Amino acid sequence: QVQLVQSGGGLVQAGGSLRLSCAASGRTFSSYVMGWFRQGPGKEREFVAAIRRSGGSTDYADSVKGRFTISRDNAKNTVYLQMNSLKPEDTAVYYCAAKAYNDYVRSGYDYWGQGTQVTVSS
Q1: How confident is the model over 60-92, as pLDDT tens digits?
Q2: CA distances from 93 to 18, 85, 96 (A)
Q3: Chain centroid to CA 7: how far?
Q4: Residue 26 near residue 37 (C-beta atoms within 8 A)
Q5: Cβ density class 90-109: b for 16+ within 10 Å, e for less
Q6: Rounded average pLDDT over 89-100
Q7: Enclosing H/E stretch for 109
């Protein structure tokens, strides 16, 4: 069992930056693939980014590639999402997630954070 607690987020102007954090409980954090998802107003939840166990491999949705960076600190049991050059269409509730299987990283997550609001004003 993994518990995920998110922090960060808030209101920012277009072009600005924010960093989201997600702290995991337990001593097996390094064995989980970690991901970030988001759900915008009136939209379905969508994949944003993922990072494999060692942090050596990452994957990004096309909409955020080049602007967002996912990273992890296994010593701190924490995964981060650095968001730069934010756009109004990035407005959403952002969720971190964890999965035990090191397979396809865009779905199949077992554990979810509580969600955090990111609002980008134009």
Answers
A1: 999 999 999 999 999 999 999 999 999 999 999
A2: 13, 18, 10
A3: 11
A4: no
A5: bbbbbbbbbbeeeeebeeeb
A6: 97
A7: none
What CA–CA distance (Å, rounded) separates 82 from 72? 11
Q: What is the pLDDT of residue 56?
A: 81
> What is the token pair recorded at 20?
């989201």
Number of helices (H) and strands (E) in the chain: give both, helices first: 0, 11
Residue type at position 56: G
Kindly report, residue by residue over 11-29, the tens digit of the pLDDT.
999 999 999 999 999 778 9
Query: How much of the chain is in helix, strand and coil states, percent to nearest 5?
Result: 5, 50, 45
Q: What are phi and psi of 20, to 5 degrees?
A: -100, 145
